[in-house]
TrEMBL record, chain A:
<keyword id="KW-0547">Nucleotide-binding</keyword>
<keyword id="KW-0813">Transport</keyword>
<protein>
    <submittedName>
        <fullName>ABC transporter ATP-binding protein</fullName>
    </submittedName>
</protein>
<dbReference type="InterPro" id="IPR003439">
    <property type="entry name" value="ABC_transporter-like_ATP-bd"/>
</dbReference>
<dbReference type="InterPro" id="IPR052156">
    <property type="entry name" value="BCAA_Transport_ATP-bd_LivF"/>
</dbReference>
<dbReference type="GO" id="GO:0015807">
    <property type="term" value="P:L-amino acid transport"/>
</dbReference>
<dbReference type="InterPro" id="IPR003593">
    <property type="entry name" value="AAA+_ATPase"/>
</dbReference>
<dbReference type="GO" id="GO:0015658">
    <property type="term" value="F:branched-chain amino acid transmembrane transporter activity"/>
</dbReference>
<feature type="domain" description="ABC transporter">
    <location>
        <begin position="26"/>
        <end position="257"/>
    </location>
</feature>
From TrEMBL, chain B:
<dbReference type="Pfam" id="PF02653">
    <property type="entry name" value="BPD_transp_2"/>
</dbReference>
<keyword id="KW-0813">Transport</keyword>
<dbReference type="InterPro" id="IPR052157">
    <property type="entry name" value="BCAA_transport_permease"/>
</dbReference>
<feature type="transmembrane region" description="Helical">
    <location>
        <begin position="265"/>
        <end position="286"/>
    </location>
</feature>
<keyword id="KW-0812">Transmembrane</keyword>
<keyword id="KW-0029">Amino-acid transport</keyword>
<dbReference type="InterPro" id="IPR001851">
    <property type="entry name" value="ABC_transp_permease"/>
</dbReference>
<dbReference type="GO" id="GO:0022857">
    <property type="term" value="F:transmembrane transporter activity"/>
</dbReference>
<feature type="transmembrane region" description="Helical">
    <location>
        <begin position="36"/>
        <end position="54"/>
    </location>
</feature>
Length: 257, 294
């Protein structure tokens, strides 16, 4: 993979106009969501920058998954806005999100179990029309383990392989923003480290912006640039990952390590 | 021996039609988790459209194509207008809606086309081929039935396996949410799926009508056999639907041909087979529930 710097990608985000002067690719403004009378998000504001990993941390029920689901339109917010590269996408359809440059890997990974590995990847590229074989080869080069299992049904994959498959599939959509929901869930620490390491490389090389939702705060902060701590649907603190890592009180109170 | 071959061929021919009907049910079940009880009367409606065209002097083939196309349209419209509001809701709602549709369409057929028995033509003869002076029990009509179902199935397999739209349809059927997140317009795929299913259902209606009589409720027995075939096959598996249809067709033909007063026992036999299969394999012969859970 070519070595490049985040700064090249920041300029690339300016192509669709809007408030592209800032590197804030994704902005969430005062977002609230509710399931019936239960408020899951309560005025959440945060942003994700190009070339950076933004980790959203918090305990079970803090609203992390709801945040991602609201950003990609699976859950409609009660109030607030989602802005992608200057464009208000709060009311945009779920199906249109990948076309706008935002890929969402949902909780539980979202492998289509009945399809083969290769078919899963092809579904990810469907909306782009004709996609060259070289792009698929690139994903397979990135994840040799799933290349070996190309023609196997996806339900035969291990947890780590599934995670590689869905990240590879998301990359085929050529997103500028990648939403990842609990990629470490149920994976061995070694695999988590491998996947996070790869994510870091991708972000640095291609200026991708990643919004990473994690319960595994220690691993997430070790790879992220910025951390946002959620508690009961509200943002408790937003700071650099390094600062959060050093704040022992905060770690004990909200992050469990 | 001749008799056995004859009974077997009859069974295979009938079984093919059951397979087609079962396949229509399976296609809809897989994509929307709805059992379409209206499948039979939808197929009857398109058969009557074909009959009206034939009576107006059109050829069988024109009528066939128009009927299949109107089947597609009917299926698509039914999904968009009637099924969409109950999709993803409580299962009972969808059941009631399709049952209501079943009755409504059947009544509509009676209003528009009358409720008397009318004969429906077949494009080919029903006399067996002659080989070396003796007649074999294979008729052009049974060849046509088997051939048209096989071609339809081959086209469907090709669509699902080798085309982008087929891949999008499968992704939508297996995992709506993931498909939507990947940019697949799931709603359109479901409409398309219902349309295609109704085409296959219509084909079974036209084939069973060929050379016999049609009236608004003429599909009722096929509905029962088609359901049994689909459930034997596991309701989730297209291959299962086809195998289920063939097993049922053969079994019923043997009952009819070898058991005394067998013709009266055919419907009972179908239900006995259903019970036995469900006792031995509650998920059906080709159920993929384990794969789904994984």
């Amino acid at each position: 993979m070519a070595e490049a710097h985040g700064s090249t990608a920041v300029s690339a985000t300016g192509t669709t106009g809007g408030t592209a002067t800032t590197s804030r690719l994704l902005e969430v403004e005062n977002l609230s969501s509710a399931y019936g009378p239960v408020r899951a998000l309560d005025g959440v504001s945060l942003s994700a920058e190009a070339g950076k990993i933004t980790a959203v941390l918090g305990a079970n029920g803090a609203g992390k998954t709801t945040l991602l689901r609201t950003i990609s339109g699976l859950v409609r917010p009660v109030s607030g806005r989602v802005v992608l590269d200057g464009e208000d996408i709060t009311k945009a359809s779920v199906e249109s999100m990948v076309g706008r440059g935002m890929a969402h890997v949902p909780e539980g990974r979202g492998v289509i179990a009945e399809l083969t590995v290769d078919e899963n990847l092809r579904v990810g590229a469907l909306f782009r029309g004709k996609v060259g074989k070289d792009e698929f080869d690139r994903v397979y080069d990135l994840f040799p383990r799933i290349a070996e299992r190309k023609n196997n049904a996806a339900h035969t994959l291990s947890g780590g392989e599934r995670q590689m498959l869905v990240i590879g599939r998301a990359l085929l959509a050529k997103p500028r923003v990648l939403l990842l929901d609990e990629p470490s869930l149920g994976l061995a620490p070694r695999i988590v480290a491998q996947i996070f390491g790869l994510l870091r490389q991708l972000v640095d090389a291609e200026g991708l912006s990643v919004l990473l939702v994690e319960q595994n705060a220690r691993s997430a902060l070790s790879v992220a640039d910025v951390g946002v701590v959620l508690n009961l649907g509200r943002v408790v603190v937003t700071d650099s990952a390094r600062t959060l890592m050093g704040d022992e009180d905060l770690r004990h109170a909200y992050l469990g390590f | 021996m001749d008799y056995f071959v004859n009974v077997t061929l009859t069974g295979l021919t009938q079984g093919m039609i059951y397979s087609a009907f079962a396949l229509a049910l399976v296609l809809i079940w897989r994509s929307t988790r709805i059992v379409n009880f209206a499948q039979g009367s939808m197929a009857a409606a398109t058969t009557f459209i074909a009959l009206a065209l034939i009576q107006a002097g059109q050829s069988y083939w024109v009528a066939l194509i128009v009927a299949l196309l109107s089947g597609f349209l009917l299926g698509a419209v039914v999904e968009r207008v009637i099924i969409r509001p109950v999709e993803g809701g409580p299962e009972l709602n969808a059941v009631i809606v399709t049952l209501g549709l079943f009755v409504a369409i059947q009544a509509l057929i009676a209003i528009v086309f009358g409720s008397s028995f009318q004969s429906f033509p077949t494009p080919f003869g029903v006399r067996g081929f002659e080989v070396g002076g003796s007649t074999i029990p294979l008729t052009p009509t049974s060849l046509y039935v088997i051939g048209s179902v096989l071609i339809t199935m081959a086209l469907l397999v090709a669509l699902f396996r080798f085309t982008r739209i087929g891949l999008a349809m499968r992704a939508s059927a297996f995992s709506q949410e993931v498909a939507r997140l990947l940019g697949v317009k799931v709603g359109g795929m479901l409409t398309l799926g219902w349309g295609l299913a109704a085409v296959v259902g219509s084909l079974s209606g036209l084939l069973i009508a060929g050379g016999g009589f049609v009236y608004p409720a003429y599909m009722d027995s096929l509905i029962v056999f088609g359901f049994v075939a689909a459930i034997i096959g596991g309701l989730d598996s297209p291959v299962g639907a086809i195998v289920g249809g063939l097993i049922l067709g053969l079994a019923l033909s043997y009952v009819n041909g070898y058991v005394e007063r067998g013709s009266a026992l055919v419907s009972v036999a179908a239900l006995v087979i259903l019970i036995v299969v469900l006792l031995v394999r509650p998920g059906g012969l080709f159920s993929s529930t384990t794969a789904r859970r994984a």
